[in-house]
Design a protein that fits this description.
Blueprint: H1 2-42, H2 54-74, H3 85-111, H4 118-145, E1 149-155, H5 161-167, E2 174-181, H6 182-187, E3 197-201, H7 205-217, E4 221-225, H8 228-233, E5 237-241, E6 244-248, H9 256-276, H10 278-292, E7 297-303, E8 309-315, H11 341-348, H12 356-362, E9 366-368, H13 375-384, E10 397-399, H14 401-405, H15 412-424, H16 428-441
Parallel strand pairs: 1-2, 1-3, 3-4, 9-10
Antiparallel strand pairs: 5-6, 7-8
Helix pairs in contact: 1-2, 1-4, 2-3, 3-4, 9-12, 10-11
Length: 458
Amino acid sequence: MKKVVTNKNTVMSEVMHDFIVRQVKVLDLLLVTLPFALVWIFYYGERIAAPYYRNGNLLIIVLFAVLYTTYGRIYDGFLISYLRISEMIYSQAIAAIVSDLIMYILIWFLARHIANPLPLLGALGLQLLAVTIWSTLAHRWYFRTFPPLKSVIVYDMREGLEKVIEKHELSKKFRIVKTLQTKECLRDLTVLDGIECVFVSGVHSHERTAILKYCIANDIQMYVIPQVGDILMSAARNMHMLHLPVLCVRRYCPRLEFLVVKRLFDIVVSGTALIVLSPVFLVTAVMIKRCDGGPVFYRQRRLTKDGREFMIYKFRSMRVDAEKDGVARLSTGEKDDRITPVGRFIRAHRIDELPQLLNILSGSLSIVGPRPERPEIAEQYEREMPEFRLRLQAKAGLTGYAQVYGKYNTTPYDKLQMDLMYIAHASFAEDLKIMFATVKILFIPESTEGIDEGKTTA
């Protein structure tokens, strides 16, 4: 009986925790929405072609709030307990900028002329100040109010998770009190008594299930670092067959409507982007040509759906003789002396990737999908990870799940898992989310870091 009471108390504390944190997040929404509301009511609302009244003004303000909330979630800006203060500020700032930009375009249409941007820029300044103050105070409040969770790491094939937690400053959220090998934990599961959170890393499904059951029964949170099989199973379709619950898993096979809409979207976006960015193409081509007189574009053989090969286009960022010995090598980032001065600039700002819009327009590439790998590099990975070829179920993309949520030097095994996560849950909504989330990483230096030569697995 006592155990049941403890369980109820734990559930209630979690409910109250979630409720309080939600109210703090609502405060952020109000602080960011207020500056826009003021400039709309006292400036733009009076200058549109057909001025709105109270309900119309309220609808415009609510639209901004919805946009900010949506982009804030896409950019993970509200994760108080998981992000650094700087990460929250950056994510929310991007969300506010994108939301203001969309509303400014809407104001154009409503005013039927180019509206004065200065009031909205002033509002943006107040919004950035608000998110800075809120992020700082909310972060400090959270960790003063909620102590770190007493946590245990259970590992088998993959150890060192405690170092990753420390590196990302999550020790404020999780206090690692014990690190156990799987056999040690299973020998006596009561070692988890009194623990609030368990991390399971690289543990086989049978052993992991035993730990999971114990955690569920004893109100212990459990975080699982998945394996490839787990991600493949996440795509399973629930069925009732033979009077039994059945999970149906099959190879990536999206609906025809999705493929048609995705292709039409690729054509429209890539065609529009090529027109809008044509000045950037011209300036970049001149810079590369003046740097060393070599070719502007770089063509490279890559793999896409079902292992088909195609030639990908990039602005050349390395010396002409970067691979004169014929050996394919991954870039090592800033340490790579093969990169030209112009190449460092265009890589840092992702400009070198722009010619891939031509690949998207021609149909050899999509906007969103697993990044295409070179056949030689893919062959190296497949020697150690035969499952690496599972990435080739879907057409390759300019950006993808691994690019948004990983880094350039994320291990190939982890990138594989991220790509399979996308393939398992591919949808047009997911494509849009990844596209918008890509904006966030454009100005993050660590997302362009190199990978150590020869490093292939976790």
